TrEMBL record:
The lineage of its organism: Bacteria, Bacillati, Cyanobacteriota, Cyanophyceae, Gloeomargaritales. Belongs to the TRAFAC class TrmE-Era-EngA-EngB-Septin-like GTPase superfamily. Era GTPase family. It comes from Gloeomargarita lithophora Alchichica-D10. NCBIfam families: era, PRK00089.1, small_GTP. Residues 7-174 form the Era-type G domain. This is GTPase Era. It is a peripheral membrane protein. CDD domains: Era, KH-II_Era.
Length: 299
């Protein structure tokens, strides 16, 4: 008789912007499906990463970092996180464990304290913690959610990840394999391709520019030799368009060539990438444009 049942279920990855949610997701699924950057608020859309083990299947839901909203796009992101918490089996609240808890972590912990969903507290970035700081930092997080188990780890070095994975699995109920074992994400390749372009814009441009950008893959043509991808970069102002294009088109060229290399890894084949830049004034405040660009309230 098999004493340990197969477990499965949904885990929400929540946390302030920049705590390493996307980095952890990529580490756990073993492939780059979520884009990352040193700039906060890179992730905008919910993305599922699927981890299938002999003992069970975890469906990890990456979310945009939670912060107090400043515009309509920000409000949609926070509301979606609240809806998500009610629909998952367990919440992994991620924090930057290299620094003591801040007001942003308190804001999220308060929201979670009123929910019934169990919470695990993941202390990321342990590779940056000096021995003498560890205890003080840990205590500051434990005070936010006294009942939550604390799991220190690093999404870059992998330390502590086996324990984290085992605890997450234990928190899930017995259940079926929801997705085929070889599947690592629920998002279509087109979405990940658009994200790979946005990631380069985060790496290569500054201040408000990456936050004012949306990317839409408009057409994909697959031939036996090469995959041709045509994508639009949408910005809010002509000045942002000028930055994205750069002097003699140099910036757009660099964005394109770096994104193309990432896309080639994703599809394991040669890619031709053509980028256009479009101005849509105030797309972040305009419901119709938000919807056209794929941002909507999730149920
Ligand atoms: N040293 C170190 N850096 C990390 C670790 N995990 C993530 N980072 C870095 O932290 C930055 C933010 O990581 P992301 O994974 O993009 O963070 P996120 O929480 O998804 O961010 P948002 O999309 O803004 O919500 C990146 O520069 C990562 O390389 C870690 O364990 N150690």
């Amino acid at each position: 008789m098999n004493a340990t049942p197969f477990r499965s279920g949904f885990v929400a990855l929540l946390g302030r912007p920049n705590v390493g949610k996307s980095t952890l997701l990529n580490y756990l699924v073993g492939q780059k499906i979520a884009i990352t950057s040193p700039t906060a608020q890179t992730t905008r859309q919910r993305l599922r990463g699927i981890v299938t083990l002999p003992e069970g299947q975890m469906i990890l839901v990456d979310t945009p970092g939670i912060h107090k909203p400043h515009h309509r796009l920000g409000e949609i992101l926070v509301k979606n996180a609240q809806t998500l918490v009610r629909s998952v089996d367990v919440v992994l609240l991620l924090v930057d464990g290299s620094q003591p808890a801040g007001t942003g972590d308190g804001f999220i912990a308060q929201g979670l304290a009123t929910q019934k969903t169990p919470v695990l507290l993941g202390l990321n970035k342990q590779d940056l913690v000096a021995d003498e700081q560890g205890e003080r930092i840990t205590a500051s997080y434990q005070a936010l959610l006294p009942a939550a188990p604390l799991l220190p780890f690093s999404a870059v070095t992998g330390q502590g990840i086996p324990e984290l994975q085992a605890q997450l699995l234990q928190a899930l109920p017995p259940g079926p394999c929801y997705y085929p074992p070889e599947m690592v994400t629920d998002q279509p390749e087109r979405f990940i391709m658009a994200e790979l372009i946005r990631e380069q814009i985060f790496h290569l441009t500054r201040e408000e520019v990456p936050h004012a950008v949306a990317v839409v893959v408009e057409r994909v043509e697959e031939t036996p030799k090469i995959t041709r991808i045509f994508a639009a970069i949408v910005v809010e102002r002509p000045s942002q368009k000028a930055i994205i294009i750069g002097n003699q088109g140099q910036m757009l060229k660099t964005i394109g060539s770096q994104a193309r290399q990432e896309m080639q890894k994703l599809i394991s084949g040669p890619v031709y990438l053509q980028l256009f830049v479009k101005v849509e004034p105030k797309w972040r405040q305009t419901p119709r444009l938000l919807q056209d660009l794929g941002y909507r309230l999730e149920s």
